[in-house]
């Protein structure tokens, strides 16, 4: 650029200047913790260059990414994928018999017997059928129809397609609103804003374990008057970041509310396999709806989302998710098909991951014993919470589900003051310090929305046991020092 | 369409056609009244999400490559499996650019590395060559937790972006490429849609206009409809081998300025569906045009290795841009797109691809980076595959010979089939086929008798859809009618892939030729 004659520079105006780009994209909030991401990347590099630090490795628990946090992939899953990728393995006896059988079966569903072919837009027919059978089994027999299921590159992609259909994009119309929980994981909010919708927050009640209260839904709905037209209600169950698992009763209330207020129900259930504790049980919105019987079961319009990214499979990078649509207008379904078809199809390995999720090894299969061993222990999570709750100023609601802890921090006024001086949210300030001094990367609660004057951090608890121990050790030591520094 | 449907296939297709229409525009009102329930006389009132309140933009989205004709083809597949007697034993799907589906074999080296990445225990297996293991280790090292199952950064794994940048530099004779300008994506389609999402704005007469060739790959028209951008058509010249004419670009943009704000021009080179490979001169002219008219240039180059015709060569837009000197190379804003779905790999199912952005306003680029984070990250196996494509075996490596042999065989077969297709189609009176210079398709022009055109219109069908549907029913060959891609008024075409194995392709060409003659006679 410095070599260009001045006269050329002066006459040129950027054509893609900030004023000339999509307002929807501009309106997507920049991540609050983007500076932390950059710093974490630098620290990783510095560690690689053997720069001296109080720690040898960074503990990155900011994403719900079990593999990144040291959890090993499931052997059965990876053996099947390898055999599908390189079918010479199917005929050799390097791999167990059930692996080879499954690979053969999956490849038979691929055009030309190759994972390199496109599949049908909604996914290969065999896998989609497998998913619908899984759903029926999971939901105590409530029927699930394959033609209502679409596999996508991760559940967020399917959610975006559904929201796209819901949004009224006419410039003269009021903006479309979607009721969203507060706190809520930021990607979904960004998706909605990017599509021109408005997120209408309903607060979850922290004092009652992050419970969803219908009165709060009502209040949120009312707050939208004159601002936007709410058309949908987005629920995350089990919650992210909160770890709350809804009771059946609560879900029934939500369904009744959605029906009464004519809201489309979006049920994000990607953490359904991550439920802990004796008193919690995941039950799907589809099941509760079906069990409520007509007229609700025939009329409430619902989209349920699931994914291979979470749970004990944790295959985030493969990008396999799906949506099941219930009680949709058939005419609208045809447009949904077209939308998904323009995306071609979900990555085939992601589709396979979903198949392995919904049809895992069974007792008697050679791979079953190893597969069964792997499930994480609930004790680990309970232990983690005990330690966190023992830290002065920390209070964490019980984590019944999901993969995160979202403890509240009561920060000393001096710390809040210092943060404000630096122009940072107090919890972001805390996280920046934690990253720098202890090499632990977590996300501040301001990223998710929180009640004014409250501060939180979110970190993934689905990690290797030794990593969890190290994390808690460093957190305890850092926090003790922090409280001393700002007492 | 189900077994219980009382409609004949053509009538059923017509229903679907009216819902998923294939001509260029239909008014929203037409579609509103055509819900299946309404057609059957059952009311569909009371739905929270219905035709009247759904996103009107989505109602305008069409994607012919997977449209009604393909749905009918799948239905016929099903009927064949159930033992229904037909004049053919299989449906040949020459509608979609999917090489593996048509029997093309994956490249061994690529699959070896990917298998190692998926199941690293195989790194101890001595059946895998050393160079494949070395690449697998390098990729895994760059993944979170050393697993392809971890999320990557939204822009894509950094060392892979570096490899892509180096590949581009090598391809473009040393012109530098910054890894930070590379965005890995879920296929090139994802990157294309992301750029359009970023750029489309404005209201009324200020609404962004996007120039796209006619004929075009209908991902573009679908995305433009979804974003309510204004589609500005520029016609490729069929008589001059589908070449691009600057005068035509000027005509299109000038006319468009009356009703919108033209800001983007899209070029597909080598072309889809037309296969033309732009000359260097033409690319320079387009760049000059983009600068004069202040347009963002989107260069879709996914078929860059698929060049067959004598005298044709792939020139990347980036290279030509930089060779035109700083007056252009520092000012023209551009994005180039590439993919792992085409070329010699044909790995559509991986959804791997990238774009390189040039001269983008840094603030807008920050917005782009923000936007891609909403999809979390592109599939990691696709990223790994891309890494191998840009970093293939070198002459001194054990897998080199086999790799080159396989790659050469695939491209040679495609070249042979391209020539064969042109040759055979041009022997049929009523079919005119331009040379298939590149890509994977042929887009011949078909002359339809007036009687056939009238019959089609009487049945509420676009004539080339009528033709293709009949071909499907009589011969079990699935093509996509030209109306799905756009064509000059009064002309008709179809798009066929050249992907079936040579013997099968000869069979298909023969069948289509016979059908065409029969069809012409039937409607004479």
TrEMBL record, chain A:
Domain Aminotransferase class I/classII large: residue ranges: 110-475
GO molecular-function terms, A-Z: L-alanine:2-oxoglutarate aminotransferase activity; pyridoxal phosphate binding
Keywords assigned: Aminotransferase, Pyridoxal phosphate, Transferase
Position of the signal peptide: none
GO biological process: L-alanine catabolic process
Keyword flag Transcription: no
Names of the cofactor(s): pyridoxal 5'-phosphate
Pathway: Amino-acid degradation; L-alanine degradation via transaminase pathway; pyruvate from L-alanine: step 1/1
Enzyme type, top EC level: transferase
InterPro entries per the UniProt record, alphabetical: ALAT1/2-like (IPR045088), Aminotransferase_I/II_large (IPR004839), PyrdxlP-dep_Trfase (IPR015424), PyrdxlP-dep_Trfase_major (IPR015421), PyrdxlP-dep_Trfase_small (IPR015422)
Catalytic activity of the protein: L-alanine + 2-oxoglutarate = pyruvate + L-glutamate
Domain of life: Eukaryota
Pfam families, sorted: Aminotran_1_2
Enzyme Commission identifier(s): 2.6.1.2
Assembly: Homodimer.
Family statement drawn from the similarity comment of this UniProt entry: Belongs to the class-I pyridoxal-phosphate-dependent aminotransferase family. Alanine aminotransferase subfamily.
UniProt-recorded name of the protein: alanine transaminase
Species, as recorded: Cyclopterus lumpus
TrEMBL record, chain B:
Top-level EC class as recorded in UniProt: transferase
The keyword Transferase belongs to this UniProt entry's keyword annotation: yes
GO MF, one annotated term: L-alanine:2-oxoglutarate aminotransferase activity
GO BP: any one term: L-alanine catabolic process
Domain Aminotransferase class I/classII large: 124-512
EC number: 2.6.1.2
Pfam families, A to Z: Aminotran_1_2
Cofactors: pyridoxal 5'-phosphate
Keyword terms: Aminotransferase, Pyridoxal phosphate, Transferase
Catalysed reaction, written as an equation: L-alanine + 2-oxoglutarate = pyruvate + L-glutamate
Pathway: Amino-acid degradation; L-alanine degradation via transaminase pathway; pyruvate from L-alanine: step 1/1
GO terms under cellular component: cytoplasm
Source organism, top-level taxon: Eukaryota
Family: Belongs to the class-I pyridoxal-phosphate-dependent aminotransferase family. Alanine aminotransferase subfamily.
Quaternary state and interactors: Homodimer.
Role: Catalyzes the reversible transamination between alanine and 2-oxoglutarate to form pyruvate and glutamate.
Protein name, as recorded: alanine transaminase
Annotated gene: si:ch211-217a12.1
């Amino acid at each position: 650029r410095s070599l260009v004659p001045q006269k050329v520079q002066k006459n040129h105006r950027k054509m893609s200047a900030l004023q000339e780009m999509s307002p929807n994209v501009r309106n997507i909030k920049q991540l609050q913790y983007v500076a932390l991401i950059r710093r974490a990347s630098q620290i990783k590099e510095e560690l690689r260059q053997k720069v001296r630090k109080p720690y040898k490795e960074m503990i990155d628990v900011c994403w719900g990414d079990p593999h990144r946090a040291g959890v090993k992939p499931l052997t059965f899953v990876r053996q099947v994928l390898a055999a599908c990728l390189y079918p010479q393995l199917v005929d050799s006896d390097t791999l167990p018999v059930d692996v080879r059988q499954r690979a053969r079966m999956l490849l038979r569903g691929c055009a030309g017997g190759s994972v390199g072919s496109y599949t049908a837009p909604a996914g290969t027919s065999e896998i989609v059928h497998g998913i619908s059978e899984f759903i029926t089994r999971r939901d105590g027999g409530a029927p699930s129809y394959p033609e209502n299921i679409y596999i996508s590159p991760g559940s967020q992609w399917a959610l975006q397609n559904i929201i796209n259909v819901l949004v009224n994009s006419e410039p003269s119309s009021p903006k479309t609103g979607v009721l969203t929980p507060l706190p809520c994981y930021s990607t979904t909010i960004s998706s909605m804003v990017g599509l021109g919708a408005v997120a209408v927050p309903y607060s979850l009640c922290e004092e009652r374990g992050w419970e969803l209260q219908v009165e709060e839904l009502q209040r949120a709905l009312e707050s939208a008057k004159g601002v936007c037209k709410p058309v949908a209600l987005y629920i995350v169950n089990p919650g992210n970041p909160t770890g709350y698992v809804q009771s059946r009763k609560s879900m029934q209330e939500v369904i009744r509310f959605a029906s009464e207020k004519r809201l489309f129900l979006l049920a994000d259930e990607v953490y359904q396999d991550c439920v802990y504790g004796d008193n919690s049980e995941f039950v799907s919105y589809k099941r509760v709806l079906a069990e409520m019987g007509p007229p609700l079961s025939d009329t409430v319009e619902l989209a349920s989302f699931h994914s291979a990214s979470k749970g004990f499979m944790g295959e985030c990078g493969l990008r396999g998710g799906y949506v099941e649509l219930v009680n949709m207008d058939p005419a609208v379904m045809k447009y949904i098909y077209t939308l998904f078809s323009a995306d071609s199809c979900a990555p085939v390995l992601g589709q396979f991951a979903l198949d392995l999720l919904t049809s895992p090894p069974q007792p008697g299969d050679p791979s079953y014993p190893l597969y069964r061993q792997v499930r994480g222990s609930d004790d680990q999570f309970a232990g983690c919470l005990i330690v966190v709750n023992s830290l002065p100023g920390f209070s964490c609601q019980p984590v019944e589900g999901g993969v995160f802890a979202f403890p509240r921090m009561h920060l000393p006024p001096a710390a809040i003051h210092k943060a404000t001086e630096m122009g940072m949210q107090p919890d972001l300030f805390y996280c920046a310090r934690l990253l720098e001094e202890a090499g632990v990367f977590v996300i501040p609660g301001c990223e998710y929305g929180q009640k004014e004057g409250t501060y939180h951090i979110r970190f993934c608890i689905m990690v290797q046991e030794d990593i969890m121990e190290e994390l808690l050790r460093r957190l305890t030591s850092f926090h003790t020092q922090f409280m001393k520094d700002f007492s | 369409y189900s077994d219980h449907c009382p409609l004949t296939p053509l009538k059923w297709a017509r229903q679907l056609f009216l819902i998923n229409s294939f001509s260029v525009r239909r008014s929203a009102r037409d579609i509103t009244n055509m819900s299946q329930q309404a057609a059957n006389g059952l009311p569909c009132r009371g739905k929270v999400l219905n035709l009247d309140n759904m996103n009107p933009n989505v109602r305008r989205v069409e994607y012919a490559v997977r449209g009604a004709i393909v749905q009918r083809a799948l239905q016929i597949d099903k009927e064949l499996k159930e033992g229904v007697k037909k004049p053919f034993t299989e449906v040949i799907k020459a509608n979609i650019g999917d090489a593996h589906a048509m029997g093309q074999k994956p490249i061994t080296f690529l699959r070896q590395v990917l298998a190692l990445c998926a199941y690293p225990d195989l790194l101890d297996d001595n059946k895998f060559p050393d160079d494949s293991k070395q690449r697998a280790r390098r990729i895994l090292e760059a993944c979170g937790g050393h697993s392809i199952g971890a999320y990557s950064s939204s822009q894509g794994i950094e060392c892979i972006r570096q490899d892509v940048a180096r590949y581009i530099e090598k391809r473009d004779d040393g012109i530098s490429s910054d890894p930070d300008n590379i965005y890995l994506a879920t296929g090139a389609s994802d990157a294309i849609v992301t750029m359009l999402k970023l750029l489309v704005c404005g209201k009324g007469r200020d609404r962004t206009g996007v120039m796209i060739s006619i004929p075009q790959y209908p991902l573009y028209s679908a995305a433009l409809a979804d974003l309510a951008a204004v589609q500005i058509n520029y016609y490729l010249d069929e008589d001059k081998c589908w070449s691009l004419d600057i005068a035509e670009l000027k005509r299109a943009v000038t006319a468009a300025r009356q009703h919108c704000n033209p800001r983007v021009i899209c070029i597909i080179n080598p072309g889809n569906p037309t296969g033309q490979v732009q000359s260097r001169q033409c690319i320079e002219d387009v760049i000059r045009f983009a600068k004069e008219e202040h347009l963002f240039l989107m260069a879709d180059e996914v078929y860059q290795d698929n060049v067959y015709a004598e005298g044709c060569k792939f020139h990347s837009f980036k290279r030509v841009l930089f060779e035109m000197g700083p007056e252009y190379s520092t000012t023209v804003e551009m994005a180039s797109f590439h993919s792992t779905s085409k070329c010699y790999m044909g790995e559509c199912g991986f959804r791997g691809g990238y774009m390189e952005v040039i001269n983008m306003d840094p603030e807008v680029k920050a917005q782009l980076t923000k936007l891609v984070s909403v999809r979390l990250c592109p599939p990691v196996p696709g990223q790994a595959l891309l890494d191998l494509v840009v970093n293939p075996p070198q002459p001194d490596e054990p897998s080199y010979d086999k790799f080159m042999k396989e790659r050469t065989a695939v491209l040679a077969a495609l070249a042979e089939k391209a020539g064969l297709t042109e040759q055979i189609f041009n022997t049929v009176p009523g079919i005119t086929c331009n040379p298939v210079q590149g890509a994977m398709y042929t887009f011949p022009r078909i002359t339809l008798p007036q009687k056939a055109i009238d019959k089609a219109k009487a049945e509420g069908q676009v004539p080339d859809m009528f033709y293709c549907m009949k071909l499907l029913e009589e011969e079990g060959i699935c093509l996509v009618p030209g109306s799905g891609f756009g064509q000059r008024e009064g002309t008709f075409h179809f798009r066929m892939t050249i992907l079936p194995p040579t013997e099968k392709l000869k069979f298909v060409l023969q069948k289509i030729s016979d059908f065409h003659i029969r069809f012409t006679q039937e409607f004479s």
